[in-house]
Amino acid sequence: MKIDQMKLARFRNLEDLEIEPNGRLNILFGPNGSGKTNLCEAVHFTSTGNNLKGTRQSELINWDEDDTLIKISSAAEDQIIVYLKRGEAKQVRYNSKEVKQSELRRILPTYTFTPEDLNLSQGSPQRRRSMINDQLGVLSDDYGSVFRKYERELKKKNNLLKKDEINEDFLDVLNERLADLGAEIVDRRSDYLTDLNEILPGTYGEFAADDHELTLNYSDGRYADASREEIREILIEDIRENHDREIELENATVGPHRDKFRYRLNGRNLRKYGSQGEQRTAVVATYFANLTLYEETFGELPILIFDDILSELDRSRGNALLEYLPHDPQIFMTTATRNQSFKKLSGEFTAFELNDGEVERLT
Ligand SMILES: Nc1ncnc2c1ncn2[C@@H]1O[C@H](COP(=O)(O)OP(=O)(O)O)[C@@H](O)[C@H]1O
Ligand SMILES: [Mg+2]
Q1: What's the CA-to-centroid distance between 12 and ligand 1, angstroms?
Q2: pLDDT score recorded for residue 110
Q3: Last residue of a domain, one of 273, 292, 318
């Protein structure tokens, strides 16, 4: 679904806003603090149920008010309504019927790219792990359910490890279950990385002068080419070897919840050797490679949201990004400065300016 009209009431500093975006590219200008990120967040939140800043839904409600309303309509007159009131459960409606948040991910799919995401290659291992988890969760519903099962068993194990007396039989049972589910998770992650690595060098090449071989892989080489059964053996072995240590630390220290992934550029660890430009290009390349995988799976592209990305890229990479934007999906792109060469953009785009929570159409 593309957004033909969006109305926001009391959403952060956007107290009463109505915008009719283009079906293709929408550029949102505006000084710092004008509400650009908040506008992106309204779309992202409707789609995913997650904030862009902070974590609590109630923070989205204007701080002088008790509730907020998001109304999104398509040209075909499909309508999504999200209503949030302090102290009450969120209400989500699609064409007047109550729907689950998870259904909106498919009805209004979005891919958001924020400056924080640019730390993907340099930041902690957890960032790369959650990118892979999120992406797999978007591509298949069952990955999400396997992962949630794994997390439930992991919680049981961690509770058990904190007890004064450990029931070793129960620990064995949990470890077997964790190895089964863990092998499936590692196997799915490996398959995803194989698919990603076929696309990554090409997308990287779009943003870099020379061709470079970019890959993202398990830091742990033991999983390379391993079958699911072999992965299970590796996990069981790890768990066995760490038995005493896990009891001592009262924490499950091995398994896919601790998986580490590493980018390599021309075979070298990007985190250790890459320049900042190369790191960022790798992240942008990953974003677009993920989009390609999304399109291969669902046959169309989601709504793309780029919040303040241009200001974080140097001019040539920023221009490369603008030129590389796909033509079919709806795109929201924010920027505080107007000096980017938007003239280079092919096709139509609409520019808006935000000031203190109010939006005005410029073109
Ligand atoms: N719950 C809220 N109620 C009212 N204003 C808010 C709320 N949350 C954030 N704001 C304000 O929204 C303003 C705009 O934020 P933001 O969209 O991040 O601006 P930018 O245009 O720089 O991206 C900020 O100045 C902030 O103080
Ligand atoms: Mg912002």
Answers
A1: 6
A2: 96
A3: 273
CATH code for the domain in which residue 202 is found: 1.20.1050.90
Instruction: Tell me, using a 6 A CB cutoff, whether residue 63 lines ligand 1.
Output: yes
pTM above 0.85, yes or no: yes
pLDDT at 340: 61
Could you list the beta-strand ranges (E) of the chain: 5-11, 14-19, 25-29, 67-73, 79-85, 91-94, 97-98, 110-113, 214-218, 261-265, 268-269, 303-307, 331-335, 349-355, 358-361
- Tell me the mean pLDDT in the region 85-90: 96
Q: Tell whether ligand 1 has an atom less than 6 A from the beta carbon of residue 5.
A: no
294 domain residue, yes or no: no
Tell me: do 87 and 16 sit in the same domain: yes
When mean pLDDT is compared across 19-33, 199-213, 239-253, the lowest value belongs to 199-213
- The pLDDT score that the predictor gives to residue 200 is 96
Task: Please count the structural domains in the chain.
Answer: 2
Domain region containing 103:
5-109+302-361
User: Quick count: other Cβ atoms within 10 Å of Cβ 90?
Assistant: 13
Query: Does the CB atom of residue 13 touch ligand 1 within 6 A?
Result: yes
